[in-house]
Write a structure and sequence with these properties.
170 residues; alpha/beta; Rossmann fold; five-stranded parallel β-sheet; 5 helices
């Protein structure tokens, strides 16, 4: 399969699983927008590795829970790389892992914004152009910790509902 001519955006794409995804997409021919929140050096290294593969790449600093930053990131990507027609929601955060009685509602809101609301808003920003393209794909990365069988609510009730939101919404 070739991704030649496509523009991919990978949230949390500067390191870890996101970096591996970004490099894999570039190896298959996509130009890649690498989103990161705070590790600019890792994002720059990922961009350099993608460029060594002969693909175009750019790094964009934006927290996925900041809707204004997402709008600015998508606009910058459109100007620099073109319309996004492949979006990988990979960014995630860990919760504090406290029992329900000890979890601050602000913690649950923080995790929900990163794992559910941010991906929803970012998808809304790119879907109109995807509908005009020959193909548009959105990939939601979730966690095995969200499976019913593993009973994650026993460990971290503030983590499992928001991290499972991508799985539930597809």
């Amino acid at each position: 399969m070739t991704l030649e001519g496509r523009v991919a955006m990978v949230t949390g794409g500067g390191r870890g699983i996101g970096r591996a995804i970004a490099l894999g997409l570039a190896e298959d021919g996509a130009d890649v927008a690498v989103n990161y929140r705070r590790d600019a050096e890792a994002a720059a290294e990922t961009v350099a590795a993608i460029e060594k593969l002969g693909r175009r790449a750019a790094a964009y600093a934006a927290s996925v829970d900041d809707l204004d930053a997402l709008e600015a990131m998508v606009a910058a990507c459109r100007r620099e790389l073109g319309a996004i027609d492949l979006l990988v929601h990979n960014a995630g955060i860990a919760s504090r892992g406290l029992p329900v009685a000890e979890t601050d509602p602000a913690e649950l809101e923080r995790v929900m914004r990163v794992h559910a609301l941010g991906p929803h808003a970012l998808s809304q920003l790119v879907i109109p152009e995807m509908r005009k393209a020959p193909r548009g794909d959105i990939v939601m990365i979730s966690s095995v910790a969200t499976t019913w069988r593993r009973r994650p609510w026993r460990r971290s009730p503030s983590r499992w509902p928001p991290r499972s939101a991508p799985t539930a919404s597809t």
